[in-house]
Specification:
mainly alpha; 82% helix; globular
Length: 402
């Protein structure tokens, strides 16, 4: 019995890359189905004659469902981890895909995206927990790999528009049920590993070790730091909502691009964000989480301010740099919050990742209304000031104090 303890300890600190990459791939599939919704906006806007406000409401229905339910599922699964919620969430998204493909009107589109939002809300807290459990001592790297999967899925939205929805129209969404079916099988495999870990007691050992002497209520300083992190998530999410949902229309109106051509510019921003997400974790390990968050927000601010005023030839290179810098804090904020809230991995993930969806949802509605009332140029100018709110990151405690 005495000899078994070191072996268990070694197991607890080892990094299980096959599970990390598997849950990252599941994250890609989950978020690629979410990406179908903004990808199909130009098609729905023309075929159903939607206003920008209605486009914003569709984004709101998707993201707010996920935002409200993620912390709820996170709170529940912190107390009672539920491995097989992962494939069930993917099934919910599959039903949403079928609905979007054949919805005849605006209201059935809204109903369909609710299923996708619910599937996302189920997936994210448990997905983050799996990444945490499989990370060993490399939490920053594991979270970066996990978040890269999701950001890659979101980044594919413009490509979906250009290559699927422009030639196939709304029924093209039905093809994503194949991805969902593969995702169900993949997450079933991950869930079986997750269940085995729970049965072996590894999860409980980790939770007790992480909680240590910090069990109980969070201190005032920790609560304040979490509020600041939520505010930074708000600023980044609103800006991302403006680019992801409406900048394609700005490119079409302001520069005279076709629907297909506009997608490639947005894709550059999104795929650069994927690279930023991946490298943000290791960079924060080297230079500190607080320093990386500060650089990410304030470093992206001047580029965002320039974007509405530059000629088309400069949009692509500026987008590449802007996306990389802005999204370099994505996984870092999640890990920082998890470390501030030990023993509450699901709740921390639900607050930050879920809030990102929720703030993006609210931002989509507000920005859609602004676009209808004052035009796309005004809306893009408004968005350009949002990264300046990152000055709040000065108020975060440094890593040693945190």
């Amino acid at each position: 019995m005495q000899a078994a303890a070191p072996k268990q300890s070694a197991l607890n600190t080892s990094t299980i890359y096959r599970i990390i990459f598997a849950i990252s791939l599941g994250h890609l599939m989950n978020d690629s189905m979410q990406a179908v919704v903004p990808a199909i906006f130009p098609i729905l806007e023309q075929s159903m004659n939607l206003s920008y406000t209605q486009v914003g409401w569709i984004a709101f229905a998707l993201n707010m469902t996920s935002s409200i339910m993620q912390p709820v599922f996170g709170f529940y699964t912190d107390k009672k981890p539920s491995p097989f919620l992962l494939p069930l969430g993917m099934l919910s998204s599959m039903f949403g895909m079928i609905g979007i493909a054949f919805a005849p009107n605006f209201y059935l589109v809204l109903l369909s995206v609710l299923f996708i939002g619910l599937g996302s809300a189920v997936f994210h807290p448990e997905g983050a927990r799996v990444a945490f459990m499989a990370a060993g001592t490399k939490r920053g790297l594991a979270q970066s790999i996990y978040q890269v999967g999701g950001n890659t899925g979101n980044a594919l939205a413009p490509i979906f528009t250009a290559l699927i929805f422009v030639p196939l129209g709304q029924p093209g969404a039905a093809w994503f049920t194949i991805s969902a079916a593969i995702g169900v099988l993949l997450l079933w495999y991950v869930s079986r590993w997750y269940r085995t870990e729970l049965m072996s007691g590894t999860m409980r050992v980790k939770k007790r070790a992480a909680a240590g002497s910090t069990e109980g209520k969070l201190s005032r300083q920790v609560k304040l730091a979490v509020v600041f992190l939520i505010f930074l998530t708000f600023a980044r999410s609103w800006y991302n909502a403006g680019i992801g949902n409406f900048y394609q229309f700005y490119l079409i109106e302001h520069y005279g691009l076709s629907i297909r051509a506009a997608q490639y510019y947005v894709f550059i921003f999104m795929i650069a964000g994927v690279a930023g997400t991946f490298f943000g974790g290791p960079l924060s390990d080297r230079f500190g989480k607080r320093n990386l968050i500060l650089f990410s927000m304030l470093g992206s601010a001047p580029l965002a301010l320039l974007l509405p005023h530059i000629p088309l030839v400069w949009v692509a290179p500026l987008f590449a740099v802007l996306g990389f810098i802005l999204f370099s804090n994505f996984s870092v904020i999640v890990v920082y919050t998890q470390e501030l809230m030990p023993g509450k991995v699901g709740m921390a993930s639900g607050l930050i990742v879920g809030l990102a969806f929720g703030m993006g949802a609210l931002g989509a509605v507000v920005l859609g209304k602004l676009a209808d009332m004052y035009g796309l140029t005004f809306t893009m100018m408004f968005c350009s000031f949002l990264p300046l709110l990152g000055v709040v990151s000065w108020l975060l405690p440094n890593d040693r104090k945190a």
